[in-house]
Amino acid sequence: MSDGHGGSDESDVLTDASDAGGVDGAGGGDDTGDGAGDADGTGDDAEDGTGADDAEDAAEESVSLETFFDALQAEGRPVATAQQVARRLDVSQSAARAALDRLAANGDVGRADVESDPVVFYPERWDDLATRERVVVFPSRREIVVDRPTQYTRAQLAQFAHLVDTSGTESGTRGYLYRIRQEDVWAAPFDDVDGLLASLRSVLPTRHEHLEEWIRDQWKRAHRFRLYTHEDGYVVLEAASESLLGTVAEDHLADDSLRAPISETEAWVNESAIAAIKRALYEAGYPVEDDRDLEEGEPIDVDLTTDLREYQEGWVETFLEKRSGVYVGPPGSGKTVAAIGTLAAVGGETLILVPSRELAGQWETELLAHTTLNAEQIGQYHGGEKAIRPVTIATYQTAGMDRHRQLFDTREWGLIVYDEAHHIPSPVFSRSADLQAKHRLGLSATPVRETDNEDEIYTLIGPPIGADWDALFEAGFVQEPEVEIRYVPWRDDDARNAYVSADGRERYRLAASNPAKVAEIRTLLAAQPGRKALVFVEYLDQGERIAEELSVPFISGETRHAERSRLFDAFREGDRRVLVVSRVGDEGIDLPNAELAIVASGLGGSRRQGAQRAGRTMRPAGSALVYVLATRGSAEEEFAQRQMRHLAQKGIRVRETTVES
Ligand SMILES: Nc1ncnc2c1ncn2[C@@H]1O[C@H](COP(=O)(O)OP(=O)(O)OP(=O)(O)O)[C@@H](O)[C@H]1O
């Protein structure tokens, strides 16, 4: 990720400044304190000329159970004296005392007379406080922690902040940690920075000048360079000032990027360098606005026959506005259908790139199911079949080969769709650089990678759209899976000793294929009779052994295409309940009815893999359960936790259980 990259010098200065100002995030309580004085309607007319008694009455009335909670929250303590409440709510002490006595008489508030100290008050029902939203800001870290955020708050935050983590506790409270990164500000969907700041202020308890200043600065950065199509047809790079074009462009762009200046702030661009220019300026901290006229492609006659869901409509709208982007949603969240909706909205010839032949087939089926397109308008282009039609579905593998360059050139594609965008092989990436003049849509369930290709995806394809997974779970379209890490002991001392004395990859393999996992898989399957289950493995021999012990098929990269399809079909139809699957099953193959996933090994892999596996069961139908088996006392424990953290960051709750020997 690009948190600290390139040209963030100015923001660093700001960070230091706010640190020096003593607003350090470490003392969280301090930050909250500021916010709570603003309890509504308190004590406003105390000095009105209508008589002291009236004023006193009004002040007294303004102290309600609700505002008492505000005062406690502001104090950061479970009890408060009348004096503290009075100060927080800006009323006289006698009014506060009278109101609290009244609340105590109603039974809403309890009181304790502490010897030689003033009376303290506390709420009788803490639950009421526990269900309230609480927002804490750490301005210097640009972090916002929200307890029990409302739907409104989450929707606002999702527009300009990144959900880093959610933590569940036994009592069911949930803290959401958001961070505002530069790229979040750059990609925020507002017409101007004031819109963004209004949204920010609507969720934060108080104004944070440094934070706002930093956001303004980032916003400015994102609006300093612009590419547009000149009326004579060539592309122009425009900078906000002469010196910017001079210094930033000169320092960061390759010599042949700009052909010639056409004014003090504009230069004629070498079209073959456009992708490189965008990437270089992004890395320098100046994302480029791309206002070029995009090729629409030959128009196609297509209508949607399925109604998009509201959030899908939102994705498509954002896409059309930005003309490029990546739909980021968990498996089953309707990215494919939203992409088909986008295709219909763009209405131009479309090239869809997918990682496997199976997916090409599924795309064709989905296109036929959700649009008025007929089979003659859709072509598949891969090892098995090579038809270029108005809507063409090709595999990355074929599209990446030099001898298939014609695929990109024979038609005026108006839209290019990259399915499983985190999977794009580099030859296709470099070819995509030549395709900058099209609408580009990526789809990804898991944009996080161990390598930092995320930037590459977002600069070459477009900004993420729809990354607020939690809201999706809440809307009920995707089921939040239960994820459980089960720590399985070694079968016996011999197995443990073999692990301890091995090293490197062998050690990792021993932990992964701990034979005790087989018994655990059996137990889990037996506990969920009738549920369709996929068991994922890393090693072929382990897969074979588990399959043999359970008397079920094992599907790996070595399984022939036809056989694989046959088994998957049987699984879909419900004729098979359990399949053991090696890595091939991770992506690109649709297993719609999996209700239970058991990850037996593969924990050394990337976070992306963890999310894909867990994601396999995040389907709208059936209940969703994911078990991750990790060998106790091995490096797998840590791997499991790391992978699952990724899920936790997406708002998914993870449980841990230790299996007894
Ligand atoms: N607007 C809609 N109306 C009705 N059904 C929908 C709609 N959107 C999606 N679905 C259905 O929900 C399921 C999942 O949708 P889709 O395949 O688009 O998800 P996805 O995010 O692309 O999943 P994956 O990442 O696994 O490919 C499909 O069965 C699809 O037909």
Could you walk me through the main structural features you see in this protein, from its secondary elements to its overall organization?
The structure is a single chain. With 661 residues, this protein is an alpha/beta fold. The chain folds into 5 domains: 9-34 and 133-220, no CATH class; 39-129, Orthogonal Bundle (Arc Repressor Mutant, subunit A); 224-291, Translation Initiation Factor Eif1 (2-Layer Sandwich); 310-469, Rossmann fold (3-Layer(aba) Sandwich), CATH 3.40.50; 479-658, P-loop containing nucleotide triphosphate hydrolases (Rossmann fold, 3-Layer(aba) Sandwich), CATH 3.40.50.300. Helices cover 42% and strands 18% of the residues. A 7-stranded parallel sheet has the order 15-16-14-17-18-13-19. The chain has a 7-stranded parallel sheet with strand order 22-23-21-24-25-20-26, sandwiched between helices. Helix 3 crosses helix 6. Residues 1-49, 168-173, 447-451 and 615-623 have low confidence and may be disordered. Adenosine-5'-triphosphate (ATP) is lined by residues 306-309, 312, 329, 331-337, 445, 620.
Briefly characterize the structure.
The chain is of the alpha/beta class. The protein is 42% helix and 18% strand.
